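thread from #wetlab-drylab

HS: before we spend reagent money on co-crystallization trials with zinc ion, can we at least see a predicted complex? here's what I'd submit
DV: go for it
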Amino acid sequence: MAGAAVTDERRELAAAARHFYQRGWMVGTAGNLSARASAGGFWITASGRHKGELTDKDFIRVDMDGQVLESPDLQGRPSAETSIHQAIYRAFPETGAIFHVHSVEANIAAHWGEKGRLRLPALEMIKGLGVWEENPLVDLPVFENLPHVPDISALIAERLEQERPQIPALLINLHGATVWGKDCTAALHHTELLEYIFRYMVTARMAGLGGYA
Ligand SMILES: [Zn+2]
């Protein structure tokens, strides 16, 4: 159909969402994705949309304050977690895309976090997340899952101002990971690598490897 094709960032976001949905990381309407828009601000998934079949109408373009710039579906509202994306784009201007998924493994691994940090095992996969040292000690920042999302965003903004995470990711306790990259491809790779690490951590415990190091 002429004129129906989506040629902007939404196409990559919809493809990534389908990919995550198929892996069980974006079941139902859960999770949200965003990418900086060439037209200004960023595109983010509209609230309550099924992630296996997103179309261009399932995204809303907002500015860095979360104000709606463009809403192809007039009924649409930006994701309830838009303020978390704003905090990350603000802290790291080089970020082009942010993906937030809800995997079972991330929520199990969160139980092993202490004092707002989760130590990750020194797997080869860490290199793909930008850490090239031998046997690196990498801590993922962990945030409380407060009932009011802007309160979580405020904690994230405050902490990101003080420290840059060693890898482009953070975890919200018993909720899910938020992962970013310079573009959709990088954010997708980072999400897959981090989720691999969570799977390893859970499987290692089940195999009796204790501290899984
Ligand atoms: Zn969420």
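DV: The chain has a mean pLDDT of 93.
HS: ok that's useful, forwarding to the group
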